[in-house]
Write a structure and sequence with these properties.
It is a single chain. The chain has a single domain (33-286), classed as Phosphatase 2c, domain 1 (4-Layer Sandwich), CATH 3.60.40.10. Strands 2, 3, 4, 5, 6 and 9 form a six-stranded antiparallel β-sheet that branches. A five-stranded antiparallel β-sheet has the order 1-11-10-7-8. The chain contains eight helices and eleven strands. With 287 residues, it is of the alpha+beta class. A hairpin with a 5-residue loop joins β7 (165-169) and β8.
Length: 287
């Protein structure tokens, strides 16, 4: 057992202050908050199987006077029925995460602190192509949405195919949607042929025109944003956002400061709204 024995006190000198400053800076950096995340899932009330997949992966490290956190977060909503859909979603999140680890995380953890040789956009593009090919091989006939977020440095990079979503929630409770649904009804809304209200009950609201395993992965949306200094990142499948209004989602997140509890409450709200589909939720807290 370690014991602490206080040393006799002595008068501080100017040299003492100079010696303690680097330690103070180091402690300050180590105590600065990193990434915190949680997730929850449900089959919903009308589905026998869960074809969604989620992934959260975080690495935090500190060296000398610096501290850093990196994270990968992904939600995939499989399609194609039992086995095809669940295999497609699992394959997609695993393959994308493995590619990001290999080409982004591992080089950065080398003693030399190498930066990725390619841009994050190029690395994500490579990851999606690899995921697409693996879905074709292992779940032929199936497909999946994929919304994946990479926190690296001061940047949030998002790769998106399908109609799962990524939102940020600001400290004042404003929800900002960062992804665009690759669905038929969303396209009809954009063309002005139907209204948002009509889209909610449209008979083809679940029809996608982009999905891994079904269409060209090069058509994915990939973009980067400045990393928020505070607030939340929310990734979810349509089992949540199509049932629970955005205002209620934001209110729930701030009503339950513990991330895991907030995730479970969001899933419960979706089930209370009928639970027509599988439900997947990831919450990441910044600051």
């Amino acid at each position: 057992m370690r014991r602490f024995f206080p040393q006799p006190s002595r008068r501080k000198t100017s040299s003492d202050s100079q010696k303690t400053q680097p330690v103070a800076r180091l402690v300050k950096n180590l105590l600065s908050p990193g990434l915190e995340s949680a997730f929850a899932q449900s089959n919903g009330l009308e589905r026998e199987y869960n074809e969604d997949a989620v992934l959260t992966l975080e690495i935090s490290y500190a060296f000398q006077e610096s501290a850093r956190s990196m994270g990968i977060y992904a939600v995939a909503d499989g399609m194609g029925g039992h086995l095809h859909g669940e295999v497609a979603s699992k394959v997609a999140v695993n393959r994308v995460a493995a590619t990001l680890l290999e080409h982004v995380f591992l080089p950065h953890l080398e003693p030399s602190g190498l930066q990725p040789p390619n841009s994050l956009t190029a690395i994500f593009r490579e990851a999606l192509i690899a995921a697409h090919q693996e879905v074709l091989q292992k779940a032929n006939g199936g497909g999946t949405t994929l919304t994946c977020c990479l926190v690296f440095g001061n940047t949030l990079t998002i790769a998106h195919v399908g109609d799962s979503r990524a939102y940020s929630i600001t400290p004042d409770g404003e929800m900002r949607l960062h992804t665009r649904d690759h669905s038929l009804v969303k396209r009809l809304v954009e063309l002005g042929q139907i209204s948002e209200r009509e889209a909610q009950n449209h008979p083809q609201r679940n029809v996608l025109y982009r999905a891994l395993g079904q269409t060209d992965p090069n058509e994915a949306d990939i973009f980067s944003l400045p990393l928020p200094s505070a607030g939340y990142l929310l990734l979810c499948s349509d089992g949540l956002w199509s049932v629970v209004p955005e205002e209620k989602i934001a209110q729930t997140i701030y009503a339950y400061p513990r991330l895991q509890e907030a995730c479970h409450q969001l899933v419960q709200l979706a089930n209370e709204g009928g639970g027509p589909d599988n439900i997947s939720v990831i919450l990441v807290k910044f600051g």
